[in-house]
Amino acid sequence: MKVTFLGTNGWYNYDNHETSCVLVESKNYNLIFDLGSGIKNLNKIKFKKKQTFIFISHLHLDHVIGIHYLNSISNLGDINILLHKKYNSKFKEIFNKPYTLKYNNYKNKIKIIPFDEKKKPNIPINFTSKKLKHSDPSYGFKFFLDKRIISYCTDTKLCQNLFDLSSGTDLSIIECNQYKKKKNFHLSFEEINENLFKFKTRKIALTHFGPDDFSSVKQRYYKLKKEVDLNKNIKLFITKDFFSLKI
Ligand SMILES: [Zn+2]
Ligand SMILES: [Zn+2]
């Protein structure tokens, strides 16, 4: 299974770094985590056309601005967009005139499917979802695909649900950005590092960097690597647009 990071910035895109979007190519389906501006990078990579499931964490614009680009993406099959039922009506409101083309007028068939934590939608993808701690609720996911387990948790403070979703995964995709602040709804590299064991995963891919965060996280990572040998059982990746890995 191949995981490609198409947008690795939070907040806004700059210097050719787009906002949140990850492509997971499984045997039968393509999964996309969040619809940031990174979605347009699909036009720059090769991938097979398959039925597509897009999972939205929350409605902050760095995670949904890509609705405006969807019509320009070639090679997508039918699209199912999954999001928490709490956000269903608001999402349909912005995925419509006068903001952009209405979702049912796109060249690909787009279906919007709401879910909640208890009721699983009728789709061929096995997943669980939990609420994370963010300024507006963000939802994290854990997917069971092709005998692999992968989690996607973005826009959150440290919380038990983040650890629960990461636990037992082959790959945990986690947001990482600014330095630890008191009033913050995001995760710092130091907080992730201090709690590395609690994620109980094999690989962690860090994404959703803020302005200047990418290089500063990299510097902090290497500084730390020199000081303490990072746990050898966990591989840590600092992603950037077009970075991909196989799990
Ligand atoms: Zn964000
Ligand atoms: Zn957010």
Give a structural overview.
The protein is of the alpha/beta class and about 250 residues long. The chain has a single domain (about 1-245), classed as Ribonuclease Z/Hydroxyacylglutathione hydrolase-like (Metallo-beta-lactamase, Chain A, 4-Layer Sandwich), CATH 3.60.15.10. It contains five helices and 13 strands. It has helices spanning about 60-65, 90-95, 160-165, 190-195, 215-225; strands at about 1-5, 20-25, 30-35, 50-55, 80-85, 110-115, 125-130, 140-145, 150-155, 170-175, 205, 235-240, 245. The strands form two sheets. Strands 6-5-4-3-2-1-13 form a seven-stranded mixed beta sheet, with no helix packed on it. The chain has a six-stranded mixed beta sheet with strand order 7-8-9-10-11-12. The longest helix is centred in the last third of the chain and has 15 residues, at about 215-225. It is globular, with a radius of gyration of 17 Å. The N and C termini lie close together (about 5 Å). The model has no long low-confidence stretch (mean pLDDT about 90). One zinc ion binds near residues 58, 60, 134, 138 and 155.
